[in-house]
Design brief:
- This protein is α/β, with parallel strands linked by helices.
- It folds into two domains: 182 residues, 3-Layer(aba) Sandwich (Rossmann fold), CATH 3.40.50; 114 residues, UDP-galactose 4-epimerase, domain 1, CATH 3.90.25.10.
- The protein has a six-stranded parallel beta sheet. It has a three-stranded parallel beta sheet with strand order 6-8-12. Strands 9-11-13 form a three-stranded mixed beta sheet.
- Helix 3 runs parallel beside helix 5.
- The N and C termini lie far apart (74 Å).
- The structure holds 2-amino-3-ketobutyric acid.
- 2-amino-3-ketobutyric acid binds next to loops.
C-alpha cells in the first residue's frame, strides 16, 4: 500500500504543480497568445509587431496591412479592413485569440478626406469588433488625444470630461470609444484601449498626423541642424516615446480585467511640450540647432483644439501605467539612434 502511494506521489505532485504553474502563468498574464495586428505597416504597427513577436514568439503574431509586407519576417496577410469577411477569414485561419486593430487614417489626412476617414476608421473598427465578437477574441484599438475638442479642459485633462471634437478624426475616435464600450457591455467582448498622445520614434515615421512635427524635428536636427515647424510656438500637446506606448499596450492587455473600470479608453501621458521645448532639449546635444516657423493653418487649428496635457491617474491606478521617458531622456535616445541610422 505504502509502496503504491510512494509510486503515485511523484505523478500526483507533478500534475498538481503543472496546474499551479499554469494558473500562476495565467495570473501573471504569461498565457500563450496568438495575435492578429491590423495596420501592421504603420508607425505603431511596425514596432508593435516586433515587440509582440519578442514576447509571444514570431509565429504567434500575424501582421496584416493593406500594403503588402515582408512575410519572411513572420506571418503576414494583406487585408483591407473594410472587407469584414476577409478579416474574419484571416482571424479564423490563424486561430487567433486577440486582435489589435490599428488600421486608420490619422488626423490631418482624415481632415483632408473626411468621408474616406469615416469609411476606413469606423468601417474597419466595426468589422474588427464583429470578428472579435464572433470568434471570442480579446480586442485592442487605440484612441487619441484627438478625441478631445476645444471645450475640453486643456490642462491635466481628466479621464472623464467634455468630448466635443471638431475634427473628423476626433469624431471617429469618440464614436470608436463608445462602440468598443458597446461591444463590451452588449456582447462581453474584452475591449481595451488607450488615448495616445503624439508618438515619437526613430523606426517608422508617422504619416498624416498633426503631431508628426515632433518626429521630423529629430530627423532634421541630425541631418541639417535646423527645422521649420508647421506648429506655432506656444502650442502644447501631449507626446510619448514609442517604447512607453508599446509597453502600455502589453501592460493593459495583460491587466486583470476585474480592475478595468474605464476600458475604452484610458488617458496616458508622458511629455507635454511645444516646438520650442523640443528645440531646447535638442540644443543640449546639438548647440547650433535652429528652429523656424511656417505655420500650417489646418494642422495648427487641429492642435489648438487638443489638450495641452492629460491626467493619466486612472491608467496608473487600474493597470499600473507609468512612462519611463521624459523629454530629455527621449531626446538623448532619439538623437543617438538617428545618428546611427542616418
Ligand atoms: C495625429 O497627430 O493625428 C496622431 C494622434 C495624436 O492621434 N499622432
Amino acid at each position: 500500500m505504502s509502496a503504491n502511494i510512494s509510486r503515485q506521489t511523484p505523478y500526483l505532485f507533478s500534475y498538481r504543480h503543472l496546474i499551479e504553474f499554469a494558473a500562476a502563468e495565467i495570473v501573471r498574464g504569461n498565457v500563450m497568445k496568438k495575435i492578429l495586428v491590423t495596420g501592421a505597416q504603420g508607425q505603431i504597427g511596425s514596432e508593435l509587431v516586433t515587440t509582440l513577436r519578442q514576447q509571444y514568439g514570431t509565429t504567434n503574431v500575424i501582421a496584416s496591412d493593406i500594403r503588402a509586407g515582408q512575410a519572411e519576417e513572420g506571418p503576414f496577410e494583406t487585408i483591407d479592413v473594410t472587407d469584414g469577411k476577409a478579416l474574419y477569414d484571416i482571424a479564423k485561419k490563424h486561430n487567433v485569440d486577440t486582435i489589435m486593430h490599428l488600421a486608420a487614417l490619422l488626423s490631418a489626412e482624415a481632415e483632408a478626406n473626411p468621408k474616406l476617414a469615416w469609411d476606413l476608421n469606423m468601417g474597419g473598427l466595426i468589422n474588427a469588433l464583429e470578428v472579435a465578437k464572433d470568434l471570442n477574441l480579446q480586442f485592442f484599438t487605440p484612441s487619441s488625444i484627438g478625441a478631445f475638442g476645444p471645450t475640453t479642459p486643456k490642462k491635466r485633462t481628466p479621464q472623464e470630461t467634455i468630448m466635443r471634437p471638431t475634427t473628423m478624426y476626433g469624431v471617429n475616435k469618440v464614436a470608436g470609444e463608445l462602440l468598443c464600450d458597446y461591444y463590451y457591455y452588449r456582447y462581453g467582448v474584452d475591449t481595451r484601449g488607450v488615448r495616445y498622445p503624439g508618438l515619437i520614434s526613430y523606426v517608422t515615421p508617422p504619416g498624416g498626423g498633426t503631431t508628426d512635427y515632433a518626429v521630423e524635428i529629430y530627423y532634421e536636427a541630425v541631418r541639417k541642424q535646423q527645422y521649420t515647424t508647421y506648429i506655432a510656438s506656444g502650442t502644447y500637446m501631449d507626446m510619448m516615446y514609442m517604447p512607453d506606448a508599446l509597453h502600455a499596450i502589453i501592460k493593459l492587455m495583460e491587466a486583470d480585467p476585474d480592475k478595468l473600470v474605464h476600458r475604452n479608453a484610458y488617458n496616458i501621458s508622458a511629455i507635454s511640450a511645444a516646438p520650442e521645448d523640443f528645440a531646447k532639449a535638442i540644443r543640449k546635444h546639438i548647440p547650433d540647432f535652429e528652429l523656424a516657423y511656417d505655420v500650417d493653418p489646418v494642422r495648427q487649428q487641429i492642435a489648438e483644439s487638443w489638450p495641452d496635457s492629460l491626467d493619466s491617474t486612472a491608467a496608473a491606478q487600474e493597470w499600473g501605467f507609468e512612462a519611463e521617458y521624459d523629454l530629455d531622456k527621449m531626446t538623448a535616445d532619439m538623437l543617438e539612434k538617428l545618428r546611427v541610422k542616418q
